[in-house]
Design brief:
Strands 5-27-7-8-15-10-13-19 form an 8-stranded antiparallel β-sheet. It is mostly beta strands. It folds into 2 domains: 236 residues, Sandwich (Jelly Rolls); 118 residues, Jelly Rolls (Sandwich), CATH 2.60.120. Helices cover 3% and strands 36% of the residues. It binds fe (ii) ion (FE2).
């Protein structure tokens, strides 16, 4: 994120002494991507950021997956994973948190998509494998980070760079759609100037991105942080519980172009056209081998004969995952998909609207829908939670639910 920010106390020049009121030196840490060759920030700690006193294994949960074989479109219903819990109300003992409660739905070697309804405050956590982009389906709260605190609300993407120590503190029950990358998550390159500014044709700009406004300072010794990192465990992911000598939330100031931020879908300006616009106009972010798009309330095609829902398409190079967040997703009418549903349309198989949705869309001027899409360029496998909430019948919906009878 090449957009400079600063917060708290800094020395006038980098790599020079900064002292606290008691005269003690602060400890400077550079957090940078691509080995000193890409975006970075400088953070000033009151404790030594590398001082650890223990490290033990931590089980990051069941990350095993199974191929989508035989190949078919899937309809997953992630709300069912948490529906047995009291739906609203204060946090209680044993309630899931937004980190350790995650259930893996879909994943491959580039990205993992999980779902969690977080109620309790999470432990301190850091993803050492890649950036995370967490979409807030509903709920409010704060993400406390070494860069400061981020308030979140429904419709936010919370983008947290790799290796950022943080914790989720919901102020109300929070339904979270978690996109964990093995790379960095950034705005599409075509939206950016050669120096990294968001261009005029981009559907959002720097003013819409909200970084930390206030530092989070905490005191303590022997503080545990859960770290997700590369390993041999299923999915190539392992976990460790590392104990820091002093509290990691000891940053008195930082500046740079690398930090967590939020972006709300309300601030996205949909690009519309005279006839149907292809999904790349709805793109928000991208990582290695995947993109994130959103379909938002918007005026639709104004050609007098336009068909506003998509044509059938074989996205031959990608698997497409849609998360239906709000409204009435026009193209899926009649398929069993509703708010809270997830569909997977795998590569190697064409997909498109339910046949009745095509006629019904002609003449429509506005679509009231909110959906988040992840397109991956390598096949997605299905996690244990995905297998648990697969409706098992979505694949036959385009044929009116009919399934061949084999003798
Ligand atoms: Fe599609």
């Amino acid at each position: 994120m090449t957009f400079y920010r600063r917060l708290g106390d800094l020395p006038r020049q980098r790599h020079t002494a900064l002292r606290g009121p008691d005269g003690r030196l602060r400890y400077e840490e550079l957090m940078g991507e691509e080995g000193f060759s890409s975006d970075s920030s400088l953070l000033y700690h009151s404790g030594v950021p590398s001082a650890i006193v223990d490290a033990v294994a931590w089980d990051p949960g069941d990350l095993s997956t199974r191929a989508n074989h035989p190949l078919r479109p899937l309809h997953l219903q992630p709300h069912r994973l948490f529906d047995d819990r009291a739906d609203e109300g204060a946090a209680g003992k044993g309630d899931p948190d937004a980190v350790t409660g995650r259930r893996l739905l879909l994943g491959n070697a580039d990205v993992r998509i999980s779902y969690v309804v977080g109620t309790a405050a999470s432990p301190l956590y850091r993803n050492g494998v890649g950036d995370e982009c967490v979409f807030v389906e509903s709920g409010t709260g704060t993400v406390e980070t070494v860069f400061g605190s981020l308030a979140y609300r429904s419709g936010d993407y919370v983008v947290i760079p790799r290796a950022t120590t943080h914790r989720w503190v919901p102020s109300e029950r929070s339904r979270l759609y978690v996109i964990e990358s093995n790379s960095h998550i950034v705005p599409p390159k075509r939206y950016l100037s050669r120096f990294g500014q968001l261009l005029e044709h981009a559907p959002y700009c720097e003013r819409d991105l909200h970084g930390p406004e206030e530092l989070v300072l905490a005191e303590g010794t022997e503080v545990d942080v859960l770290i997700k990192h590369r390993g041999d465990a299923p999915g190539g992911i392992a976990g460790s519980r590392v104990t820091y000598a002093t509290h990691p939330f000891d940053v008195v100031g930082w500046d740079g172009c690398l930090y967590p931020f939020t972006f709300n879908v309300e601030d996205y300006m949909p690009i519309t056209g005279k006839v149907h616009q292809p999904p790349p106009v709805h793109q928000v972010f991208e990582g290695d081998n995947f993109v994130i798009c959103n379909f938002l309330p918007r005026k639709v095609d104004y050609h007098e004969g336009a068909i506003p829902v998509p044509y059938y398409h074989s996205n031959v190079d990608s698997d497409e995952v849609m998360f239906y967040v709000a409204g009435d997703y026009e193209a899926r009418k009649g398929s069993g998909i509703g708010v809270g549903s997830i569909s997977l349309h795998p590569g190697g198989h064409p997909h498109g609207p339910q046949p009745s949705a095509i006629e019904a869309s002609i003449g429509r001027e506005f679509f009231d829908e909110v959906a988040v899409m992840v397109d991956t360029f390598r096949p997605l496998e299905v996690g244990v939670a995905g297998q648990e909430v697969d409706d098992g019948v979505y694949a036959w919906a385009w044929a009116g639910g009919r399934r061949a009878v084999r003798s």
